[in-house]
Amino acid sequence: xxxxxxxxxxxxxxxxxxxxxxxxxxxxxxxxxxxxxxxxxxxxxxxxxxxxxxxxxxxxxxxxxxxxxxxxxxxxxxxxxxxxxxxxxxxxxxxxxxxxxxxxxxxxxxxxxxxxxxxxxxxxxxxxxxxxxxxxxxxxxxxxxxxxxxxxxxxxxxxxxxxxxxxxxxxxxxxxxxxxxxxxxxxxxxxxxxxxxxxxxxxxxxxxxxxxxxxxxxxxxxxxxxxxxxxxxxxxxxxxxxxxxxxxxxxxxxxxxxxxx
Length: 261
Known about the structure:
The protein is mainly alpha-helical. It folds into 3 domains: 45-127, no CATH class; 143-210, no CATH class; 212-260, no CATH class. It has helices at 2-36, 42-61, 68-84, 86-92, 97-107, 112-125, 129-140, 152-164, 169-183, 189-207, 212-223, 229-241, and strands at residues 245-249, 252-256. It has a two-stranded antiparallel sheet with strand order 1-2. Strand 1 and strand 2 (252-256) form a beta hairpin. Helix 2 (42-61) runs parallel beside helix 5, helix 3 (68-84) runs parallel beside helix 6 and helix 6 runs parallel beside helix 8. The longest helix is centred in the N-terminal third of the chain and has 35 residues, at 2-36. The radius of gyration is 21 Å and the shape is globular.
């Protein structure tokens, strides 16, 4: 009995240390890249991306032995470091973003806080909106309107990708209606606003599939998520291209719409 208990304790710990060890082996290399990236050739950076790709493939297949949240949190921290390294990303792109997304969804599909950065990186920067939508659909299958709390945000992210990056107004309309229905289960001011805003966006799309108002409102949703500066600049450009304007005020961003839709 003691032997079995010892095995039960040691097996997951060994597995966890193995997983963390794979990442730890990469850390000195990553630190070196961050410190000396100005003088590193594109060839070296591409080799490093290949190594990171192999590591992510391993992390996707290795069992977590019940430590799914730990695995998801660790991979998310890795993703934040990857996404935030602007100088390297300008040279090598964001092609690994959906791989981080995939691993996190596999281990913790209810990790609500991870979705906005992962979906934005995958759709907007890696130019893989179909992959982002598929992963969000997978996550939504593990959610209800109440679990996790305010899970309606995922329907909003999904509708955003469908409208802005695929031009699928019918799918987007359905996603915004679902967001409104799920948000309607809550009585707080934010949820009430989301309910009204999502229904309004769906209504715009039902009347005019090419609605500039709907697209501006959807870009504004991305802006309201507290995005990084490079994403903010991209969103402002898109809103202005549609005839809208973004005005910074002490209370936050104010969006003005063109006179006609």
